[in-house]
Design goal:
This protein is an alpha/beta fold. It has two domains: 261 residues, Glycogen Phosphorylase B (Rossmann fold); 185 residues, Rossmann fold, CATH 3.40.50.2000. 40% of the residues lie in helices and 19% in strands. The chain contains 19 helices and 18 strands. The strands form three sheets. It has a nine-stranded mixed sheet, sandwiched between helices. Strands 15-14-13-16-17-18 form a six-stranded parallel sheet, with helices on both faces. A three-stranded antiparallel sheet has the order 8-10-9.
Length: 475
């Protein structure tokens, strides 16, 4: 099949979060399955010069943006067996970051329309499916239906829309209809929702398939508590909704070969994980205490990551329990300030790094014993899978992809510790169960680490499910 994968970010070129990892890893897995998958994303200023040197300029064309036309240059790059098309417009994309600008709606309206214009210029590649990801590409299905479906060379293309996080929908005022979006009045109802323009709503209405990044999340977003207002729209399109659990790039996240970590190890030879713990203690200035567990949190410091639960119990945990705690991430000021204070109150047990650091995150995954992820909501989550890959035991709340990827080890078969309710005491109980097992049954703990290291969270299984979904969309 021919799949054009449209994303506002994709590794190895530009990434701000999980979407970039998915847009880099899933196409790679699909290509390894024999599919012809190509990725299209903006040519951002942040893309490294050494990557730009290997790009090939192909052509340029004009893109309609409501009543005006804008230049679009197209560069081609190859990475991991995948062809990437990077769309160049310096007015929209030569900026220091990927998102957060006053005109993001116009920037990604241009990008969505440019993706469809690109199809006419791709010699020998007419996609069977255009796979759109999150609100930044959500106008592609409505534009296809309104302007391209009956155009020569565009016949019978199917569109798939993946919701990575339903909280971000692309909600704007009606002024965009004429000034930016440029669809005709009879089509306004496709994008109008709750007194606003809603990009995601238009994609759900107009695409052939709606997917989410885990089966549990597909069910959860039908509930008003999770849907951020779109549950009624999703119920109308329930027949085309499905959830497919994300995977991780197991070649990149591999404790046997990862150059970022101090020592290499595997499920069959895991002794060096203890040496990685020593290296982590050195990195954070801890005294060497191999028998004291290290709990890690690597996260954006925002409310839906469950940080309120941590705030309610972490002082008690550190006061009463022999444990170390490391936090890596950035986010809202209230949470950053709390963790700064925690570092002052518990200088011997707590460490904080307020930054995004890929290499350091891998060192933490490899050196920590437990990984805390108490999310209020979590569409899929990749961190718990990465933790498993490095033999670090997840402690998670049962929501979204956390429920689908982590099972409680109380039965002697699970790969982590879980709790159900959004409650600080329930989380504290799950942490205590993990610490008790760590201290009191080294044999069972070692077996748990081995099970974690053997977990298969590669994209291979998910890629097969995506292929079946594409075929259903085209049938």
């Amino acid at each position: 099949m021919k799949i054009l994968f449209a994303s506002s970010e994709a590794t190895p070129f530009a990434q701000s979060g999980g979407l970039g990892e998915v847009a880099g890893a899933l196409p790679k897995a699909l290509v390894e399955k024999g599919e012809d998958v190509r990725v299209v994303l903006p040519l951002y200023e942040c893309i490294k010069e050494e990557q730009r040197k290997d790009m090939k300029f192909l052509f340029h064309f004009d893109v309609p943006v409501a009543w005006r036309s804008q230049y679009c240059g197209v560069f081609e790059a190859k990475a991991n067996g995948v062809t990437y098309y990077l769309l160049d417009n310096e007015y929209y994309f030569k900026r220091s970051g990927l998102y957060g600008y006053y005109d993001d709606a116009e920037r990604f309206t241009f990008f969505s329309r440019a993706v469809l214009e690109l199809v006419a210029w791709l010699d020998g590649f007419k996609p069977d499916v255009i796979h759109c990801n999150d609100w930044q590409t959500a106008l592609i299905p409505i534009y296809y239906n309104c302007f391209y479906a009956n155009r020569k060379g565009y016949e019978n293309i199917r569109t798939v829309y993946t919701i990575h996080n339903i909280q971000y929908q692309g909600v704007y005022g009606y002024e965009l209809l004429n000034e930016v979006i440029g669809i005709s009045p009879p089509d306004y109802s496709l994008i109008d929702f709750d007194g606003c323009v809603n990009f995601s709503k238009s994609a759900i209405e107009c695409c052939n398939k709606v997917t989410t990044v885990s089966p549990s999340y597909a069910n959860e977003i039908l509930d008003p508590w999770f849907s951020h207002g779109l549950d009624t729209i999703l119920w109308k399109s329930y027949w085309k909704l499905t959830g497919i659990l994300n995977g991780i790039d197991v070649d990149s996240y591999n404790p046997k070969t990862d150059k970022a970590i101090a020592y290499h190890y595997s499920a069959s030879s895991k002794a060096n994980k203890a040496k990685c713990k020593e290296a982590l203690e050195d990195r954070f200035g801890f005294e060497h205490k191999p028998d004291v567990p290290i709990i890690a949190l690597i996260s954006r410091l925002v409310s839906h990551k469950g940080l309120d639960l941590i705030i309610n119990m972490v002082d008690e945990l550190l006061d009463t329990t022999e444990v170390r705690f490391i936090v890596l991430g950035t986010g809202d000021t209230e949470y950053e300030d709390f963790f700064k204070g925690l570092a002052v109150r518990h200088p011997d047990k707590f460490r904080l790094e307020l930054k995004f650091d890929s290499a350091l995150s891998r060192q933490i995954y490899a050196g920590a014993d437990m990984f805390l992820m108490p999310s209020k909501s979590e569409p899929c989550g990749l961190s718990q899978m990465i933790a498993l890959r490095y033999g670090t035991i997840p402690i998670v709340r049962e929501t979204g992809g956390l429920r689908d990827s982590i099972s409680d080890c109380g039965d002697g078969k699970g790969n982590g510790f879980t709790f159900k309710t959004y409650n600080a005491q329930d989380m504290h109980w799950a942490i205590n169960r993990a610490i008790d097992l760590y201290y009191n049954d080294k044999k069972k703990w070692s077996a748990l680490v081995t099970r974690a290291l053997k977990c298969d969270n590669s994209w291979a299984k998910s890629a097969d499910l995506y292929i079946n979904m594409y075929k259903e969309a085209c049938s």
